Amino acid sequence: EVQLLESGGGLVQPGGSLRLSCAASGFAFGSYTMSWVRQAPGKGLEWVLAINSGGADTYYADSVKGRFTISRDNSKNTLYLQMNSLRVEDTAMYYCAKPIRHLEAFDFWGRGTMVTVSS
Amino acid sequence: QSALTQPASVSGSPGQSITISCTGTSSDVGGYNYVAWYQQYPGKAPKLLIYDVSNRPSGVSNRFSGSKSGNTASLTISGLQADDEADYFCSSFTSSRTLVFGSGTKVTVL
After folding, report:
1. C-alpha dist (Å) from residue A97 to A13, A63, A83, B16
2. CA-nearest residue of chain A to B48?
3. Do B46 and A109 touch (CB under 8 A)?
4. How far is A52 from chain B (nearest CA, A)?
5. Of B3, B15, B36, B46, which has the maximum CB count within 10 A?
6. Tens-digit pLDDT profile for residues A31-55
7. Is the Cβ–Cβ distance between A94 and A113 less than 8 Å?
8. Cα–Cα nearest to A84, from A52, A112, A58, A117
């Protein structure tokens, strides 16, 4: 059974940093591009970053470029999201998502971890 | 990358069919057959309903179907049921090698 378990969310002040993790199991984690998708309270979904299977290529939405970094440890089946220079508008539920193939559609999602940026 | 355009809300009576549109550009919806649709209940993670414009993952009801014409994709829900009341989002791969989601549509079953 595919499982994605996010952790690391919490309350942080504007300008602060936070590191999220996503522990994956039940599939060949090292064979898939993985993504982070976020959803602000009461708003729609926003794809924010992806990293290819080997970790050499990363893809970013303009809204987080230069502030967020995605990485992975295939030996630990874990995906990471390093968030720096956090803004109030980064407040959202952050989901880890597994694609069907690459970046076309996500067939499995974690339950999400909430990040709140507030003073 | 701007969000794909979806109607804010669509409603229908039980048993009816409804269609949700998702409009983008030639750089996303119109340029690739990589449109997906998701269903999301409040407080829950999204669930994949349709991928590659019209393919259903195993386990998804055949009441859900997808199509595309030009820069607009569509999701049709036939035989509307009470538990179809949820939010629906489309997404598309883009020419920038990124992914863009739609603005979301709230489906209400009257």
Report:
1. 26, 19, 17, 32
2. A107
3. yes
4. 12
5. B36
6. 999 999 999 999 999 999 999 999 9
7. yes
8. A117
Tell me, yes or no, if B88 comes closer than 8 A to chain A by beta carbon. Answer: no
Distances (CA, A) of A103 to A40, A52, A65: 21, 9, 18
- CB within 8 Å of A91: residues ≥ 6 apart: A40, A41, A115, A116, A117, A118
- For residue B2, pLDDT over 90 is answered with no
In angstroms, how far apart are the furthest CA atoms of chain B?
40
**Quick one: pLDDT at residue A14?**
98
Computed over its alpha carbons, how large is the radius of gyration of chain B?
A: 13
Task: Give the residue carrying structure tokens 């994709």.
Answer: B73
Minimum Cα–Cα distance from B50: chain A residue = A105
